[in-house]
Amino acid sequence: MPIADIRQTYQKYELLESAAAANPHDQFDTWFQQALHSQVAEPTAMTLATADLQGRPSARIVLLKGVDAGGFVFYTNYQSRKGHEITANPYVSLLFFWPELERQVRIEGAVAAVSAAESDAYYLSRPLGSRIGAWASPQSQAISHEALAQRAHDLAEKLGDNPSRPPHWGGYRVHAQRIEFWQGRPSRLHDRLVYTLDADQHWQLSRLAP
């Protein structure tokens, strides 16, 4: 089959203003809970898009590790490519795609590091192997498979069973300024509801053409 002929018909749900929550965080919580209970393969997986000072974008999948009225939290190596780009240009975009529900959520906003205490608490909740991995991986730098395995082995012996959080690793919180909810619909007449913050920090809801 030619690639151009690959199509999916979307018709499971609709998204109307009358049923939408007054603010996007409540709407996200509703959709996220539905994703959790609908056998979505990776409900916390989200595309994180960053850009450098020249405006050149890059994107990758990261995992949502917290969400509240303050924003959306993920964790990573601060010295990675994404970490350097966030330092240079602290505005990002997140994208959730839940194909089982025929839904997307697009989030845009400023990003900042979470507190050291918050990063420590999450780091200590991770499996031991993941904690060692945060020390062992010089993320985004060239390295051989053998060298990475050896670093992990050596650090596991050195750090023991209760390693502290490496200073180059921690969380970021995305403070949303725009959140769009996309619901697939027949004939490509998709529902798109977008919440944007106005000058008084109030959420305004509008519909976009598909």
Describe this structure in words.
It contains 5 helices and 9 strands; from the N terminus they run H-E-E-E-E-H-E-E-H-H-H-E-E-E. The protein has 210 residues and is α+β, with helices and mostly antiparallel strands. It has one domain: Pnp Oxidase, Chain A (Roll), CATH 2.30.110. Strands 1, 2, 3, 4, 5, 6, 7, 8 and 9 form a 9-stranded antiparallel β-sheet that branches. The chain is globular, with a radius of gyration of 20 Å. The mean pLDDT is 97.
Q: What features would you highlight for this structure?
A:
210 residues; alpha+beta; Pnp Oxidase, Chain A; nine-stranded antiparallel beta sheet; 26% helix; 33% strand
Write a brief structural summary:
By secondary structure, the protein is α+β, with helices and mostly antiparallel strands.
The assigned CATH architecture is: Roll
Rg, rounded, reads 20 Å
Q: What is the oligomeric state here?
A: single chain
Low-confidence stretches: none
What coarse outline follows from CA principal-axis ratios?
A: globular
The fourth-level CATH homologous superfamily is Electron Transport, Fmn-binding Protein, Chain A
* Percent of sequence in beta strands: 25-35%
Structural class: alpha+beta
How many discrete structural domains?
A: 1
How many DSSP H or I helices? Answer: 5
Main β-sheet: number of strands, strand sense, barrel status? 9 strands, antiparallel
CATH class: Mainly Beta
The rounded distance between the terminal residues' Cα atoms is 26 Å
Looking at CATH, which topology would you report? Pnp Oxidase, Chain A
**What is the mean predicted local confidence, pLDDT?**
97
> How many β-strand stretches?
9
